[in-house]
Every structure is written in C-alpha cells, then in structure tokens.
# Entry
Amino acid sequence: MLEEHEWKQMEPLLTEQTQVIKEYRTRTGRNLKQAMEEAFKPATEKYFELTGFMETNHNAIHHHRLSAFGPECKKCGQLLRTPKASYCANCGCIR
# Structure
C-alpha cells in the first residue's frame, strides 16, 4: 500500500500518459499494447522503488493507495474497504 507522500510521486506517472502513448506510437509505429507497456514503465519502476514489489499491471497500482481504504478492523485486522465502511467485508464486524 502506498501512503499519500508516495502516491503523490506515483499519480502523475499513472495519469499523464495519454500524450506519451500517442507520441510513442507515432514515433515507433508500435501497437497500443506495446506503447502502453513502454509508457507505464516509469510507473512500475517507481512502484518497485517504493515498495520492493515489481507490479507488472499498471492498473493494479491504482488500487494500492492506502487512503482509499478505511482503518483496520478491530476483530480481524483487515483494512475496511472504504474510509466510510460501516462493517468489515472480511469478517462482518460492525465498525
């Protein structure tokens, strides 16, 4: 999970890639899949630098933002699915 100061480093690498992809495809003639892999390489490399885990799916990184989840469940310790969750989806404990 990425804390907010880490997310601030990741977010631009994930959200500002449309133009990079277009330019790469124009320059190289590669297909969209190849262009996306190349464009998001900085994001996956930064994620590895921050976490030590080599995530190969750049879309999955969007789901690793700690502030998108709630606190740990008092009963089972799992993170609640959202900050406003009223119960734990894992064990059913009421918040």
